[in-house]
Amino acid sequence: MVLLSDVLSKVTEKDIMEHYYNCSIKDKKAIYKNLLRNDDKPTCYFNWYRGHYYLVDRGRGRDSNFDCFTLVKSIYNCNFSEALCFINRDMNLNISSNSIINSNNKIKIKKNDNETDKSLHLKINYKVKSRKWNQHDIDYWNQFNINISTLKLYNVIPVSSFESDNNDSFKFKPKYKYKETDPCYAYVFKYDNCIRLKLYRPLNAISKWQGNINITDVFGYEQLPDECNTVYICSSLKDLMCLHEMGFTAIAPQSETSDIPEEIIDNIRLRSKKLIILFDNDYTGIEQSKKYASKYNCRYIVLPHDDISKDVAEYVKNHGLNKTKEIILTSKQLIR
Length: 336
What we know:
By secondary structure, the chain is an alpha+beta fold.
């Protein structure tokens, strides 16, 4: 087994990224392509953030950013432990390991590739075992004033363990087991007789998100009332649940750069008088707010800037539920 500490004792995360990008990387220069999606223009850049080295894709939002380990996992369609083995081998680190890795499943990536290998987009299946809510779960979600009843309403379940298959054998293997320092929650998406999962590990910097959710899946749509005055379109299910605790009605796409299907927008307009975009107050959030306000012919709100809060959930955590609600209600509604 190759340990993360052994790898990082020999190379940095930037070294790893440069190896697989096959070039010397200049930080903060928007001259690179996102290799994990179809990318026509080199508009991404690299930078360190909280001790980790990321490709930053501001055009697509946070969900498109990735670190070197996510890149290697995608290249080889493997888990984190296997990715460390590949890094050890590919970069000739000579770390002692008994792990066996298959050298035949690598996706060849060139610096200027315009298309991502289709195998990166194949869906993985999951088997999830739930557990009972405990005090650690309650304490985590209470930071955002989100109650257990709200989590249940939006089909969030605490995970005891999960297994996933792979695109070659379709055999399920254990991938996660609960511990207090690494809780996992399953966002269960139910719509039109389909069930998909988005797995959220909030305290895990390496494997925070995974799942088989579709980019067009919209959280909160199933829970919308038949009639309401206003529907907010926010950045995430966590933001959505905070808004619910304030008494607001909201939906959330998979990211700020995800288009909501037209039939859903049309249906919402039949139920509500107004649509309001309420994305993050960073550059991407504001630009996407303008874009979708124009596209959906609605208004948008930008939360005031501060050094610690950029979305609804962070505002609730740092300023409280009532203050955040007051800010939303008194914010000027803008239109592009």
